[in-house]
Amino acid sequence: MTLTRLSRSGSREMATLEAAAGMTEGHRGRAGIFDAGLLAVPGVEALHAIQAGTARQPPIHYWSGRRLIALQHGEASIAMPVSAWFYGPKGRLHPGIFAFLFDMTHFYAVLSTLPAGAGCTTAELSVTVLGEPPRSGTEITGRSRVVYSDERCALAEGLVVGEDGHPFAHSTSRYFLFAPGSVQPSCSDGEPLAEPPLPKTRAVLTASTPHLAPVGPALLRQLSGLEILTAQLTGEIPAAPVDRYVGIQLMSAHDGRVAFSLPVHAGLQQELGTVFGGVIALMAKSAIGAAVQAVAPAGTGFTALDFKVNFLRPCPADGGKLIVTGFLTHRGKRLCIANAEVTYRGRRIAVATGTTSLTPPE
């Protein structure tokens, strides 16, 4: 199949998926945000109220299809579908989805330990990938527990496991804690609870859908990583499903250096109204992987081993663009290390680093 034919067929297939998911700008703007009244109760009670439907779910809840399985003091378990929407360029689950789920689960575990009016924010998230990713149509669960806390910080540790309990990723995360009275939601207008945005998103995520691998095995053997990225820039090869779903767009690709953008919309908001940190981590991981891809010869296999994100400041959901630049810092025969820098309106939001294993062409 030629690049042009692949582009046309892939675009039609993904357009069908995108229409089914209802990811329109109108839907994205319907945001339900953390109710200020929940600051008057301990964190674990606030989270139970959100899950029970007596308080608003944040938009990221509907976008991700998440499901709270268990919550108690210092521990949380959240499940997400392994959807074709979350596939990366090789036609399997994007490793950044592990970071997305971990950030959500760690946050719940830490928040469940806090008194009324207190808050927390992710300072650092580290992920180690364990083996091959799970197959589509199944479900993964993030499990987190707080292993240390004092007045100023907390440390959480967890696993992402499959339906049979098999571990797919391990993580630790450090949180900064804020004293009672210091947390202010970004939106608290006292209006009645809004209808949930994207009410059918979870049904779409869990439905059986065609799996589009933008780059099949044949093209991987024929084209270098940089040639593939260049073809994506020109529209000859479609973007990965996860990029289409999130809204991540490839801006440039050179030898060992790439840049992506993400227009920020209300659908990416977490409980306090800022952009969910898991989205930023997912975007950073995309840039790290693409920077390595940009130096890979034709036929090279590459597998994410680990990555770490440091969050420097919150990102408001006010219509700007997140920009992430990924660049190679070490290029070996079997291991590459790349860094990423995420900015918003010219200010640095996060920095990340990751290690990728290479399998040379046969």
Offer a concise description of the structure:
With 362 residues, the protein is an alpha+beta fold.
Q: What order do the helices and strands come in, and which of them pair?
A:
Elements: H1 3-21, H2 25-28, H3 43-52, H4 59-64, E1 67-72, E2 75-81, H5 96-111, E3 119-129, E4 139-149, E5 153-161, E6 167-178, H6 201-206, H7 217-222, H8 225-234, H9 241-246, E7 249-254, E8 257-263, H10 277-293, E9 301-311, E10 321-331, E11 335-344, E12 347-359
Antiparallel strand pairs: 1-2, 2-4, 3-6, 3-9, 4-5, 5-6, 7-8, 8-10, 9-12, 10-11, 11-12
What does this structure look like?
By secondary structure, the protein is α+β, with helices and mostly antiparallel strands. It has a single domain (3-359), classed as Beta Barrel (Porin). Helix content is 28%, strand content 31%. The chain has 10 helices and 12 strands. It has a 12-stranded antiparallel beta sheet with strand order 1-2-4-5-6-3-9-12-11-10-8-7. Strand 5 (153-161) and strand 6 form a beta hairpin.
Give the helix/strand class. alpha+beta
Number of domains: 1
What's the level 1 CATH class? Answer: Mainly Beta
User: For the report, how would you describe the main beta sheet?
Assistant: 12 strands, antiparallel
Rounded mean pLDDT is 82
Uncertain ranges:
1-32, 187-200
Order of strands in the sheet with most strands = 1-2-4-5-6-3-9-12-11-10-8-7
Helicity, as a percent range: 25-40%
Q: Which strand-content bin applies to the residues?
A: 25-35%
Beta strands, count: 12
Radius of gyration: 20 Å
Write down the CATH topology: Porin
